[in-house]
Amino acid sequence: MKKYIIYIALLIAGLVLGYVFFGTSSEGSANTKNVSDTSETQIQMWTCSMHPQIMQPEPGDCPICGMDLIPAESSAEGLAMNEIKMTENAMALANIQTTVVGNAAASDADGMISLSGKIAANEENNSVQASYFDGRIERLNVNYEGQQINRGQLLATIYSPNLVAAQQELLTTASLKESQPALYKAVRNKLKNWKLSDQQIDAIESSGNVRDNFPIYATVSGTVSEVMAREGDYVKQGQPILKVSNLNSVWAEFDAYENQISNLKDGQKIKVVANAYPNKEFDASVSFIDPLLNNATRTVTVRATLKNTEDLFKPGMFVTGKLKGAMKTTAETLTVPASAVMWTGERSLVYIKTNPNLPVFEMRGVTIGNRNGEFYTITQGLQNGDEIVTNGTFTVDAAAQLQGKKSMMNQGKTVKETMPMADMKIELSASFQKNFTKVFSPYLQMKDAFVDSDAAQVSIFAKATSKSLKSIEIDALGKMEQSHIIKSIEMLDAIAINDKLENQRAHFVILNENIIPIAVNLKDVNPILYVQKCPMANNNKGAVWLSTEEDIRNPYYGEQMMTCGSVIDSVQ
């Protein structure tokens, strides 16, 4: 009997344990199914197996190669439509830094407006040294710019046939001055009008000899800014020989943005700091505000006159002007570093870190107030505590552009409109191809300037490339080809107005993605163009460029990684 009771107890215990284990497993399966069901409700994204940067919410063809899109692997990132996520490695390579926005604190620089400018010659003190009679320059004593001259200094010696004839008239009338004093006086006055002094005229009359060569003396003191004649030149009466600038006073000319104009007025006190003397301030007053706005830079010229008796200022020097503005810092005023703001000419943009624990960013438009030193005041668009990108902003924007997200150069466009199509065949007319090849000369000069890391030269050649590209008629091209040309011009103009090499290189990435698809479809290109690629550029996503040399000279890193890259294609 006891034996049966033990068997029954063991059976009951087994049933209980089985229920616990298998019941729990079943429930777990149910829970797993619920999770699976939840994941299935997430939006399915579609990508290209050859171009994984393509990401669309519906199936279709790849806008680059035309292949059918495939379902993208599910992700738990949960990014919003215009958010981008960067890897920690990419952020480290691009030196991307963020800062939490805080309220501005009152300081001695409260309400101070900072303007950038250059020293220029005071045009009110400029003068021209001219020849006072016709003749040939036998000797020119001043023959280079920058030379100092003083009033009364011998500048040149001129042979003048008219002056020789006038001297002969003087000697003839000198013997008749008692009988015809009016004629004698008229001849003397003619010589005086040619800037001969009474002593010179008396010397000619007393010696009875005619001089062939006559000197020209300086009538002003200053610095020679331009030599307008050379020895042996024939000059007319009144023709300029030299331009002379008196640098005892100079102009400090600043560029002021539209939103700063209301804070400026004539006579306003301004402190000027020159890069050459960073620890010294010079007091001046605003003497002129240009009534016309420069449409290209959206700035007006503000001028102040500086005394320069100690010859401290040289035309061309960079200077900074600081003056008190009408706007004062309040407890609610937000300030951000100037490096955080991207200005497109129409709007100001920043990138916000939307997830404090992950490198996820989104672009946001802001309204800026005055610039105080290296900071902007923000009147709309940000809140206290927002975390924004303050270094590497253009790199983040380039990443957003490549991923088809909303960016500075891509406002509300679709992925198909913004992604490159380098692998697609494009039919181009013979006339277009002929005109397009003219773009390569300034483009290659710009590329070499990138190699040399010379931002100033990059801007110059970008402007020249843009001008060449704008001269090409594109109305006969297809919509896709026109899109490439228009985007290329946008990038070139953005490179031209930027003075930071990092920003220029970010735009250069996008420029090449649009200009190379056109280039690779040209025929009979001479010399051969090589399509080269650096896999580490553009945050390890790779970037391409054109070169006439097969050897690699990297425009994205310069001396740091001069030979990084390889030839991936050629145009011939």
From TrEMBL:
Any one cellular-component term (Gene Ontology): outer membrane-bounded periplasmic space
Metal-binding as UniProt keyword: no
Segment forming the signal sequence: none
Sequence ranges assigned to domain DUF3347 in this UniProt record: 439-521
Gene Ontology MF terms: transition metal ion binding; transmembrane transporter activity
Residue intervals of the CusB-like three alpha-helical bundle domain: 163-211
Name this polypeptide is given: Efflux RND transporter periplasmic adaptor subunit
Source organism phylogeny: Bacteria, Pseudomonadati, Bacteroidota, Flavobacteriia, Flavobacteriales
